[in-house]
Task: inverse folding
C-alpha cells in the first residue's frame, strides 16, 4: 500500500479527479433528509438506514478503499482514503457506525494476522454486510485492558468461553465478535491473552443493551456461558492475543479522526445557527468564544491531517496518535459546551433523539454528553496523557507496585 | 515541495545551533549583528532580488528559533520592512539600493501592534500621530508604517519625529512609542498607494501574524523542554517530580496544545503559499496567531506553576518565557479582536 501512497499524495488537493468523482457520487446518493428521518425513531429504523447506506457505499466501492487491491473498491492509497473520508464528512453522510468494526477492525485483523482459510471464510461475508462487534472491554478491564478475565478453555478442537464483555458497539445486531480472552493466568497480564473469532448466534451468547445517559443504546454487554469456538477460529497463536489486538486497534490508521474533525468543522455552521436562533448574534462575549472555537477546530483538523500525512510518509512517532485523540476529545468538548451555553434554557428541554448523528445533532446538551464517547472510549484522555508524557516527553512510567497506607494492598 | 522542506529543515537546524550558541535571551547588541551577518533578512527575499527565495515559510522557520531562544533581535519588524520594500512600487534601482541597506546592517523597524492613531491631514500634506510597540527604534534609521491606503518608509532622523522607550514586563524585547508631528508627506518615501497599498498592507499583516505565531510556538517548545527537564531533575518526597501523574498529565496537555498550534501554523503556511494578500490568507493568519499565542500563554502559565518556587525567582529563565507569552497575546491586533474578527468573518459567510 505504501508504494502508491507517496505518488497519490501529490493529487490530494481540491481539484483531484477522485475528489470530484466522490463528491458527485455523494451528492446523488446521500439519503436526503436522513437527519430528520432518524429523529424520534426506534433503533430498528436506524439499523435499516445503516444497511441501505452500507449497500450503496459498498456497491460504489467507497466502503472498502482500505482493502488490498483485488477486493471490490480496494487498493486505494492512504491519501485517496483521506479524500474519500473528507468528502463523506463534507457531504454530511451518515457514519457507518454499524459496519465500522467489520470493515476496519475485523477485516484488517484478518488480513494481517488471519490464515488464508479464515480470510476466505470471513472476508466475503463482511462485503455482504455481515456485522461484527468487538469483545475487548470488560467491567473490570477498561483502561487496564490487559487485566481482562473472560476465560477460554481448550477442550479438544474447541475453546469453551465463559465471561462477560461490555461497551461493545452495536453488539445486539452483530453476527460475529472479535474476542480477546484469557487462556493463561500464570504470567504477566498481557501474556496469557488469546484472540478468537466468535459466532454471536452460537448457543450461550446473550446480549444486553446498555442504556446510556443520552437515551441511546448503541453499546451492549455480551455474556458468554459455555460458548464453543472452534480452534480454526483462533487468530495468531494461543497466548499472542495482545499483539493481534494491537493490530486491530491500529487498523483505522488515523482516518477516523480526520473524518470526525472535518465533521466538526462542517458543523461550525450549527453553532452560527444556534447564535441566530437564540437571538444572541450581538452577544460580544459569545462571539469571541465562537471565534476561539472556530480556530481550535481548525487546529484540530490540521493536527489530524498532519498525523495522517506522517503515516503516509512513514514519519509517525510513538504518541502522535495520542496527541490527535486527546486534541479531538478536548476540542469536541469545547465545541459542544459552547453550543450548550448558547442554547440556554431551551437546550435543556429534551428533544426527540436523533440517531446516528454522532455529536453534531445541534441538540447541544445531547451533543455535549455524547462528546464523552471520545474522551473515554478508545483509550481515555487519561490513558492518552500517560502515553504522551511517558513515551513522547520521556517522563517516568507509573510504578507497577503500590500499597495504600493503613495496610490494604 | 520536499526540496523546499529539506531547505527549511536545514535552515531551522542551523538557526537552532546559532541560538543555542548565543544562550537564552541573547541581547540585541550581539544577536542582531549576528543575524544580519548570517543573512537571515535575505531568507524571504525572492531569488530575483538576490535573496534565498524561501518566502514567509523561511522567515517563520527562523522566527521559531528566535522565539525558542527568546532572542532580542528585532527580526520580525525588520523582515516586515524588507518585505514591504520587495513588494513596493519603487523603481528597480531604488528598491535594490534600499534592500541592500536594510538586509546588511541598517535597521528599518515596524510596529508590531495595531495600536495607533496615525492620520494624514485633510489636505493630504502632512502625517501625524502615535505608533505603539515599535521594536528597537533607537537602533533604527527608518520606520515602516501604513496609514489609510498608503505604505510609507519614513526616516527617524527628521524634525517632528520623537520616540519614547516603554519598559515592558517582557525584557526580551525593547518596544517604543513613536510620535510623528506634522511630517510633510512629500518628503516621505511612498512604497505603495491605493490598491497596491491595500494589498501590501494585507500582506504585511499576514506576515506579522504568522511571525508572532512562529515566535510563540518556538518559545513554547523551548519552555516545555525546560519544564520537563526541571521535573526530571527536581526531587521531592524522595522521587523525581516527573513521576507524579498529576504533573505528567498536565505536561501532556500542554504538549497537546503545542502540537495543535504547530500543526495549524504548518497547515496555514502551506495553504497560504505565496498568496499573502487574500482575505483567506488574512483569516488563516489570524486563526494561527490566536491559537499559537493563546496556547503559548496557557503553556507558560502552567509551566511556571510546574516549576514551583524557582519559577518565581528571577534567577531562573521560566519567567522570561511567561512574560514573552503575555506580550505576544497582545501584539498584532490584540487577543480579543482576533476572536471577534474570526467569528465575524465566519458569520458573514
Result:
Amino acid at each position: 500500500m505504501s508504494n502508491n501512497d507517496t505518488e497519490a499524495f501529490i493529487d490530494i488537493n481540491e481539484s483531484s479527479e477522485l475528489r470530484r468523482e466522490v463528491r458527485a457520487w455523494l451528492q446523488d446518493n446521500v439519503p436526503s433528509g436522513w437527519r430528520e428521518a432518524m429523529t424520534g425513531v426506534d433503533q430498528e429504523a436506524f439499523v435499516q438506514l445503516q444497511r441501505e447506506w452500507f449497500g450503496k457505499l459498498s456497491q460504489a466501492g467507497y466502503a472498502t478503499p482500505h482493502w488490498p487491491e483485488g477486493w471490490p473498491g480496494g487498493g486505494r492509497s492512504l491519501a485517496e482514503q483521506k479524500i474519500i473520508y473528507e468528502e463523506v464528512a463534507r457531504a454530511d453522510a451518515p457514519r457507518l457506525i454499524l459496519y465500522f468494526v467489520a470493515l476496519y477492525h475485523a477485516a484488517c485483523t484478518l488480513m494481517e494476522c488471519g490464515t488464508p482459510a479464515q480470510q476466505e471464510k470471513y472476508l466475503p461475508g463482511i462485503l455482504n454486510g455481515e456485522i461484527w462487534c468487538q469483545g475487548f472491554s470488560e467491567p473490570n478491564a477498561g483502561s487496564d485492558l490487559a487485566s481482562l478475565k473472560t476465560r477460554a478453555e481448550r477442550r479438544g478442537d474447541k475453546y469453551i468461553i465463559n465471561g462477560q464483555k461490555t461497551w461493545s458497539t452495536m453488539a445486539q445486531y452483530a453476527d460475529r465478535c472479535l474476542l480477546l480472552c484469557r487462556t493463561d493466568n500464570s504470567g504477566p497480564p498481557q501474556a496469557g491473552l488469546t484472540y478468537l473469532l466468535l459466532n454471536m448466534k452460537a448457543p450461550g451468547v446473550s446480549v444486553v443493551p446498555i442504556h446510556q445517559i443520552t437515551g441511546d443504546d448503541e453499546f451492549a454487554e455480551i455474556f458468554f456461558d459455555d460458548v464453543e469456538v472452534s480452534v480454526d477460529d483462533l487468530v495468531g497463536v494461543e497466548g499472542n492475543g495482545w499483539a493481534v489486538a494491537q493490530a486491530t486497534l491500529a487498523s483505522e490508521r488515523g482516518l477516523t479522526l480526520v473524518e470526525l474533525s472535518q465533521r466538526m468543522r462542517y458543523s461550525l455552521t450549527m453553532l452560527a445557527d444556534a447564535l441566530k436562533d437564540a437571538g444572541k448574534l450581538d452577544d460580544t462575549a459569545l462571539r469571541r468564544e465562537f471565534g476561539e472555537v472556530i480556530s481550535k477546530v481548525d487546529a484540530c483538523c490540521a493536527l489530524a491531517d498532519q498525523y495522517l500525512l506522517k503515516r503516509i510518509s512513514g514519519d509517525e512517532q510513538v504518541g502522535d496518535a495520542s496527541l490527535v485523540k486527546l486534541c479531538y476529545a478536548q476540542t469536541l468538548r469545547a465545541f459542544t459546551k459552547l453550543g450548550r451555553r448558547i442554547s440556554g434554557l431551551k437546550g435543556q428541554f429534551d428533544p426527540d433523539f436523533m440517531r446516528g448523528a454522532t455529536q453534531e445533532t445541534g441538540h447541544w446538551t445531547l451533543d455535549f454528553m455524547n462528546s464523552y464517547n471520545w474522551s473515554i472510549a478508545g483509550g481515555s484522555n487519561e490513558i492518552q496523557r500517560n502515553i504522551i508524557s511517558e513515551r513522547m516527553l520521556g517522563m517516568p512510567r507509573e510504578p507497577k507496585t503500590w500499597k495504600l497506607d493503613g495496610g490494604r494492598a | 515541495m520536499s526540496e523546499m522542506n529539506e531547505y527549511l529543515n536545514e535552515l531551522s537546524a542551523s538557526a537552532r545551533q546559532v541560538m543555542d550558541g548565543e544562550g537564552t535571551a541573547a541581547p540585541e547588541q550581539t544577536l542582531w549583528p549576528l543575524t544580519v551577518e548570517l543573512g537571515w533578512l535575505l531568507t524571504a527575499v525572492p531569488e530575483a532580488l538576490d535573496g534565498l527565495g524561501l518566502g514567509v515559510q523561511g522567515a517563520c522557520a527562523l522566527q521559531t528559533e528566535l522565539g525558542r531562544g527568546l532572542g532580542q533581535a528585532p527580526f520580525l519588524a525588520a523582515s516586515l520592512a524588507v518585505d514591504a520594500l520587495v513588494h513596493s512600487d519603487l523603481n528597480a534601482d531604488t528598491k535594490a539600493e534600499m534592500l541592500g541597506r536594510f538586509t546588511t546592517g541598517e535597521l528599518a523597524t515596524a510596529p508590531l501592534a495595531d495600536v495607533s492613531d496615525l492620520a494624514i491631514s485633510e489636505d493630504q500634506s502632512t502625517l501625524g500621530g502615535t505608533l505603539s510597540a515599535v521594536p528597537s527604534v533607537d537602533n533604527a534609521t527608518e520606520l515602516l508604517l501604513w496609514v489609510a491606503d498608503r505604505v510609507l518608509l519614513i526616516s527617524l532622523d527628521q524634525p517632528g519625529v520623537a520616540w519614547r522607550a516603554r519598559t515592558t514586563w517582557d525584557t526580551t524585547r525593547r518596544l517604543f512609542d513613536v510620535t510623528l508631528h506634522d511630517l510633510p508627506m512629500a518628503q516621505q518615501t511612498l512604497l505603495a498607494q491605493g490598491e497596491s497599498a491595500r494589498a501590501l498592507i494585507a500582506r504585511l499583516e499576514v506576515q506579522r501574524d504568522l511571525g508572532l505565531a512562529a515566535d510563540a510556538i518556538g518559545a513554547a517548545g523551548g519552555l516545555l523542554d525546560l519544564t520537563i527537564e526541571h521535573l526530571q531533575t527536581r526531587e521531592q518526597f524522595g522521587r523525581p517530580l516527573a513521576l507524579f501523574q498529576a504533573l505528567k498529565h498536565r505536561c501532556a496537555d500542554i504538549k497537546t496544545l503545542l502540537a495543535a498550534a504547530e500543526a495549524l501554523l504548518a497547515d496555514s503556511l502551506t495553504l497560504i503559499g505565496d498568496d499573502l494578500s487574500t482575505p483567506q490568507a488574512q483569516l488563516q493568519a489570524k486563526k494561527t496567531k490566536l491559537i499559537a499565542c493563546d496556547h503559548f500563554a496557557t503553556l507558560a502559565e502552567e509551566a511556571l506553576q510546574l516549576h514551583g518556587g524557582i519559577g518565581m525567582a528571577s534567577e531562573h529563565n521560566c519567567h522570561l518565557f511567561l512574560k514573552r507569552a503575555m506580550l505576544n497575546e497582545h501584539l498584532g491586533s490584540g487577543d480579543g479582536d482576533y476572536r471577534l474578527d474570526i467569528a465575524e468573518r465566519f458569520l458573514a459567510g
Summary: The mean pLDDT of chain B is 96. The CA atoms of residues 213 and 292 of chain B lie 5 Å apart. The beta strands of chain B are 108-109, 119-120, 126-135, 142-147, 150-155, 161-166, 175-184, 189-193, 235-236, 239-240. Chain B touches chain A at residues 228, 231-232, 240, 242-243, 245, 248-249, 251-253, 255-256, 259-261, 263-264, 266-268, 287, 290-291, 294, 336, 338-344, 346-347 (CB under 8 Å).
